[in-house]
Design a protein that fits this description.
With 378 residues, this protein is mainly alpha-helical. 64% of the residues lie in helices and 5% in strands. It has helices at residues 15-23, 31-65, 69-72, 75-112, 130-137, 140-166, 168-173, 179-200, 202-220, 224-235, 238-259, 296-307, 316-325, 337-354, and strands at 265-268, 273-278, 288-294, 312-314.
């Protein structure tokens, strides 16, 4: 299947693109959902707190209307009364405003989650471009906003007209009731009318939420070229990665060559392979590979070994087996214990012979160094 390298944005946004958009404050938001939740909270808050608010308002009216003639003409007393009335009114409305504020915050983060971005507060000259502004007005989002505005108007007008027709008889009966009963009845009717009107906006919010999610994802979609550029930026160019691997190999080879002088023996092919082994008799482990390589690296290992008087033993099958079966810093496989032990014993005997503390050791033959079939490399 051919890849689409055109500039058309058809691919889903990557996790990095989503994170960057969140950092810029570009997250899905539904004003209709926010408005709906605030209106529902307001109606329910008035229903739950309305009795207390009415009582408090009645108390405030009684306090302000029961002022003597002398107090009316005393400006200082009027200021004290006004201050007390304002404080009482604010305290009366604090629970209602607190409820609405909490719901407003929760409803705002309900869709896209919490996000605070300083970048979104910055000035952008592109937003002042009239051409782009006209494009947004006649774009998909502008069309959706127009549809929502018309839908809200006709929906609320239809529901309001229906409720007025249904509740017409109830409204006419209010004039034949006492003030207290009529007010209580009116408040009850008003509550249910407002609640039904607000709930009618659920239809608009139910259409707006999926649209906002779809539009947000549409704006963040990426072209194949953008994905390639992002991947290249995250992982680096092939040239850079190759250079890093080369530097890592050079550093590893340098550390390996520094360990060759500490080896007890170097086993060679003799021309193509070289493996340096180290064995600590005070430890319970097997001999370890401190350096290994082929061709030029093998030649360098042999040169360093000669320079530091590290014994070099030619055992081609054993050198190949160790090179292919043990990593640098790892112990040799158990199947090679016997052969390596004979090599180390031979090196030890040679050392004693050179110090004139023993006889000349017999040279090792290939048949003296057994290698399992699963470790043999030809």
């Amino acid at each position: 299947m051919a890849q689409d390298d055109s500039g058309e944005r058809t691919e889903e946004p990557t996790s990095k693109r989503l994170q960057e958009s969140r950092e810029k404050g570009q997250i899905p938001r539904s004003r209709e959902l926010n408005t709906l939740m605030i209106l529902i909270a307001s109606v329910m808050g008035l229903h739950l707190l309305g009795a207390g608010i009415i009582e408090e308002i009645s108390s405030i009216f009684k306090t302000t209307l029961q002022i003597s003639r002398e107090e009316i003409f005393d400006v200082s007393i009027l200021l004290v009364v006004l201050k007390r009335v304002l404080i009482d009114a604010l305290l009366m409305l604090v629970p209602f405003f607190a409820l609405v504020a909490v719901v407003a915050i929760l409803s705002a983060v309900m869709l896209g989650g919490w996000s605070f971005s300083v970048k979104s507060l910055g000035f952008k000259a592109s937003k002042m471009d009239p051409v782009k502004g006209i494009g947004r007005m006649f774009g998909v989002k502008g069309l959706m906003e127009l549809v929502k505005a018309l839908a809200k108007f006709f929906l609320i007008a239809t529901v309001a007209g229906f409720l007025l027709w249904v509740q017409l008889e109830e409204f006419l009966q209010l004039g034949m009731q006492t003030v207290e009963v009529g007010m209580a009845h009116f408040v009850d009717i008003l509550f249910w009318v407002m609640l039904i009107l607000v709930l009618s906006l659920v239809v608009v919010a139910a259409l707006d939420v999926p649209f906002q999610l779809w539009d947000h994802k549409r704006q963040l979609k990426m072209s194949m070229q953008e994905i390639k550029d992002e991947t290249k930026q995250a992982e680096g160019s092939p040239e850079m990665k190759g250079r890093i691997r080369q530097l890592q190999m050079e550093a590893a080879q340098q550390r390996m060559m520094q360990d060759v002088p500490t080896a007890d023996v170097v086993i060679t092919n003799p021309d193509h392979y070289a493996v340096a082994l180290s064995y600590n008799q005070n430890e319970s482990g097997a001999p370890k590979v401190v350096a290994s390589g082929v061709d030029l690296i093998a030649l360098q290992i042999r040169a360093i070994a000669k320079e530091h008087d590290v014994p070099i033993v030619e055992a081609p099958p054993l050198a190949r087996a160790i090179y292919h079966s043990a990593e640098i810093g790892a112990e040799i496989p158990a199947g090679l214990y016997v052969s390596v032990a004979k090599i180390l014993a031979y090196v030890y005997q040679v050392d004693l012979y050179q110090q004139q503390q023993g006889g000349k050791p017999t040279s090792l033959k290939e048949s003296d160094l057994p290698i399992p079939d699963d470790l043999r490399r030809d």
